[in-house]
Amino acid sequence: MSSFLCSFLLIFIFTSQLTTANINNDNKLQYFCDQNNDGGNYTTNSTYHKNLNTLLSTLTSNKDINYGFYNSSYGINTDKVNAIGLCRGDVKPNDCQNCIKNSSVFLTQLCQNRKEAIGWYDEDTCMLRYSYRSIFGLNETRPFYLGWSLNNATNEDEFDKVLKNLLDNLRNRASSGDSDLKYAVGSDEVGQNNNQTIYALVQCTPDLSKSLCDDCLVKSIKAIPRCCNNRLGARIVRPSCYLRYETDSLFYQQTPDPPSSLQVPPFSTPPFAQNTSSPGKSNKSTTIGIAVGVPIALVLMVFIFICIYIRVREPDKRFEEVQEEEDKINITTEQLQFDFNTMRIATNDFSDSNKLGKGGFGFVYKGRFSNGQEVAVKRLSMNSGQGDLEFKNEVFLVAKLQHRNLVRLLGFCLEGRERLLIYEFVHNKSLDYFIFDQAKKAQLNWGRRYKIILGIARGILYLHEDSRLRVIHRDLKASNILLDEEMNPKIADFGMARLFSIDQTQENTNRIVGTYGYMAPEYVMQGQFSVKSDVFSFGILVLEIVSGAKNSGIRDGENTEYLSSFAWRNWIDGTATIIIDSTLNNDSRNEIFRCIHIGLLCVQENVASRPSMASVVVMLNSDSVTLPMPLEPAFHMDWSDFQDTNPPSSAQELSVNGASNTELFPC
């Protein structure tokens, strides 16, 4: 299963009804939170909240259900909650119940106070959704997400033909299922010598009629040529139906009751020690097999144990370097530690009137010390995805980083379960507060926008090359750029940042964090990040600042596409003026065009083709530097290809890991 995820690109598509699209890698939950302002919220400990908790805690209580489908309601009138829990058809009842229980815990935490949410847990093992409206017996195809393999079929025509026949057959079987289960799996061979096998699975929520299930799966099958043409694997996950196929592995259980994982492990009776003699022969061969096999198995176990022991004891040089640096600043950080009672008084006991904003980590409050100094206090929520690791990371890094374009950490507080970070107070909120607001963006003329672009570039350059440490931010986005009284930019939120050694160029991770739309493709798909990952994010920021639109969606007539691909297309067509924010009028067109050019250079798919931040700063400071022609950007996608979907609006974003999110945008 893990190989499937590593080799797949996931794209989220959603509508105004459910606009928060996220992946939480720690909790293995992919989820959407309702952002509908029309009755989409509930207050803590309200009747709706209590009904939701009651419903989710009892949803899987019926032990007679062994087919993986739970649907129920609780409450009356406006406080009524409806919920559906569905497990993949090959999942055992106990595993199914545990999956839905885990989903309910994480989904209610990650979509706090939202009346409607949906999540897919443990690589789509189960789906859980709840809502204040009726969701039973409806064919709901949005929100949904797509994933496809990075590898292409060699014989495309034959592959597509075999795949379509297989999926059509499975669709007919699944839609003909009963009210307990609408599910089908199967496989077929491709190639003259049957040298490739396609494994496929389709499923609908059993409350759908035959025709509604068929309609949902037909829509998913039709989407394959538009998103995943000739790919060796794909998945299309919707609220009402699920489709997936693969060629590299059998990803589903072929039997409804596979062998228990608690059976005697293979070492007890190695394959070469099994009795293969006929019934009439003696058991002498079995005895010999055991006599030979058991010692070999024991030797292998000892060898494995030694390897594990050595690996555990083997020092991690990078960790030692970080630890050494931490030791050096222990005295410094101790001097930065504040008393919790002092911060409680400074923020008026963290009163609502002092709130500056909210993110996945918790709230930010304005504080004032007795000497009149104003501060911003980031208070981590008990349920925050940002825990002690990110807290320590931010204290450690920001305490050592001093630059005019970085937010300055004044101190921290660590008392009981309380985690506070105290920053300099930045008066003008964040860049997204201005640049994406139709009225407020007028305050940012081109001179100010250019100063912001240059300031961000200098701040990133300091992180990459000029500080005592080499730091990769990993979550550069408009909401993490704060603006002071003079509209100077300050990069904030280092909870996801990573420390590199001076000669290190790249690192891999299994924990993808950041915000979709700003993340480089090699990071999303392969977990590889470097200074060029931040360069990619900077390029997106430049295009957003120039256009006043979010990268996650920009409209061009009836079509909607990513801002990066929209900018590329108009740049190539010679219509770059369309990219520019209309509020900028005719200000410094040559300088604006140059910034668009630099932004496109930064978002190129090829990592090596992206400029370094040192080069970017030179490009921004000098008109005499000749800029190379940019290649096609990563994640080039025209949303008009998906004619059966509503594309995301320009006010929507996708994010990963809520720890670094701000209120305007959710993960």
UniProtKB/TrEMBL annotation:
Can you name a GO cellular component term?
Answer: plasma membrane
What is the predominant subcellular site recorded for this chain?
A: membrane
What's the protein name? Cysteine-rich receptor-kinase-like protein
- Its source organism is Medicago truncatula
On the tree of life, the source organism's domain of life is Eukaryota
Residues in Gnk2-homologous domain copies? 30-135, 141-250
Q: Name one GO biological process term.
A: immune response
Q: Which residues cross the membrane?
A: 288-310
UniProt-annotated stretches for the region Disordered = 255-284, 646-667
Q: Which GO terms describe its molecular function?
A: ATP binding; protein serine/threonine kinase activity
Where does the signal sequence lie? Answer: 1-21
The Polar residues compositionally biased stretches are: 271-284
Q: Where does ATP bind?
A: K378
Membrane topology per the entry is: Single-pass membrane protein
* Record-linked PROSITE patterns: GNK2, PROTEIN_KINASE_ATP, PROTEIN_KINASE_DOM, PROTEIN_KINASE_ST
Taxonomic lineage per UniProt? Answer: Eukaryota, Viridiplantae, Streptophyta, Embryophyta, Tracheophyta
